[in-house]
Each structure stands twice: as structure tokens, then as C-alpha cells.
Specification:
The chain is globular, with a radius of gyration of 18 Å. The protein is of the alpha/beta class and 251 residues long. The chain has a 7-stranded parallel β-sheet with strand order 3-2-1-4-5-6-9, sandwiched between helices. The chain is built from 8 helices and 9 strands. It has a single domain, classed as NAD(P)-binding Rossmann-like Domain (Rossmann fold, 3-Layer(aba) Sandwich). Helix 2 (55-65) packs across helix 3 (92-117).
């Protein structure tokens, strides 16, 4: 089988690459910085420098990865950009990065996968969103709004690609103990509830893709906490989430 992972050079993406390589699959990964890739001796791993913001580069990477006359079985979009703006201001560059990666980049990933898989009449697409994206309230962060957009985009592509035998799985994780999460929090995850390790997240994601689930939210405690918050009035939810953001910033 052939698996391509956008944002597969580190974190969850690279862990998924390792998972599929252990099964004997051919795996292609891409990212902006190939120096992030850990040292490895995987024969079936191919790496490409490509930014999901540039759809032509992404398409060329996928086409270069696939052997002639072979299908792309799985495409996973693990890219994402984060900056917190509920309890403070973010820069124009941070906002632009989130919009470019989380929305435009996601659209590009779906389009590349669609173009490659459409003639196959088979294939699986998965995208990493966020558990925060299930919440809808006026003053939610830009990150939350972009990840909610990812969930809605996935719903649209799922409906559109179903006649072509292509499944779309949306992954909405809570906090996963990755190097990136630790970097964002100065290696202190004490204020991150229900954190799970990367290997557990990888197993849950791979299983969801295999079973062609529409949406998976994990861990379960985070899932139910967010669903409980979702039923609150918007004004109350705004207040709760603002105070949460202030607390996480130690203010």
C-alpha cells in the first residue's frame, strides 16, 4: 500500500509514518523542513520538501512518490499552525500562518488527494483537526475557528467523494504529548487536561482510518468535556474560555 502524509516530518505525522512502515507499506512524507526528520533506516520512506500552501509543489511531491501505475491508498494531512489569541493579541504573521496552513493548506491537501484518487474509485483521506473545533461560540480563538472550518471542509469532501469510493476521516484530538506541544508550553503540560502520548494517538488514528470512520474525537474524557461545554449559552462559554486562556497564560 502507498501512504502519503503531509506534515509527516515530526510529531503525530512522523509517528503515523513509522506505524505504516512497520506494516511494510511505502510511505511518503512532506514538510517545509526536512531536517526535522529523525535519523532512520527505513527503505520504504521517501521525503519531499513541500509546503501545503503551494498546491503545485504538493501535487508534484505526491506524483513523484507514487510508482507508475500504482494507486494512492491513504492520504493524511497532519499539518497545522497554532497561536493563542483569546487572552491576548497575536501578530499579523501568526494569523496569516494559521489561515494559510489550517484553511488554505487543508483545502490544497483535499484537492491533491481528490485529483490523484478520483480515477482510482478507491482511497482514504484523513485530516487532523482539533477537539476545540467542535465548539461554536462568538469569541472562540482564530485557531478554534480554523479547525472548525477544517471539520466542515472534511464534511463537504466526504459527501462529494463518496460516489467515487473515497472515504474521509476527520481526527479531532485533544492534547497529544508531542515535542511541539512541549515547546509551546515551555515543557510544562501541567495545565493541559487529559494529555495522551503520541503512540496511543497514532493507534487511535490509524484504526479510525482503517475502519473509515467519519469522525473520531479523543481522548474520551476530553470529548465529553467539550460536548458538555458546547451546550452552554454562548455568553457563558465566552467567559469560561477567556478565563481558561488567562489561567493557562498564568495571568
Amino acid at each position: 500500500m502507498n501512504v502519503f502524509i503531509a506534515g509527516g516530518t515530526s510529531g503525530i505525522g512522523y509517528s503515523l509514518a513509522e506505524h505504516y512502515l512497520s506494516k511494510g507499506y511505502r510511505v511518503g512524507i512532506c514538510g517545509r523542513d526536512l531536517n526535522k526528520i529523525p535519523d532512520h533506516n527505513f527503505v520504504n520512506l521517501k521525503a519531499f520538501k513541500a509546503d501545503v500552501y503551494q498546491i503545485d509543489d504538493l501535487l508534484q511531491a505526491v506524483q513523484a512518490f507514487l510508482p507508475e501505475n500504482e494507486d494512492l491508498d491513504i492520504f493524511i494531512n497532519c499539518t497545522g499552525s497554532y497561536a493563542e489569541d483569546v487572552a491576548g493579541q497575536i501578530s499579523y504573521e501568526e494569523a496569516e500562518e494559521m489561515l494559510s496552513t489550517n484553511i488554505l493548506g487543508t483545502a490544497h491537501c483535499f484537492e491533491v488527494a481528490r485529483r490523484v484518487m478520483k480515477g482510482q474509485l478507491t482511497g482514504r483521506i484523513a485530516v487532523i483537526a482539533s477537539v476545540s473545533g467542535i465548539l461554536e461560540y462568538e469569541n472562540s480563538s482564530l485557531y478554534t475557528k480554523t479547525k472548525r472550518s477544517v471539520i466542515q471542509m472534511a464534511d463537504a469532501y466526504r459527501r462529494g467523494l463518496k460516489p467515487f469510493g473515497i472515504s474521509v476521516t476527520t481526527i479531532a484530538p485533544g492534547y497529544v504529548d508531542t515535542a511541539k506541544l512541549r515547546d509551546l508550553n515551555n515543557n510544562d503540560l501541567s495545565k493541559k487536561p487529559f494529555v495522551i502520548d503520541v503512540k496511543t494517538a497514532t493507534t487511535l488514528i490509524a484504526d479510525a482510518i482503517e475502519k473509515q470512520k467519519k469522525l473520531i474525537i479523543f481522548p474520551s474524557k476530553m470529548k465529553w468535556m467539550m460536548k458538555s461545554l458546547a451546550v452552554l449559552p454562548s455568553s457563558l462559554l465566552n467567559l469560561i474560555m477567556f478565563r481558561k486562556a488567562k489561567w493557562m497564560k498564568n495571568e
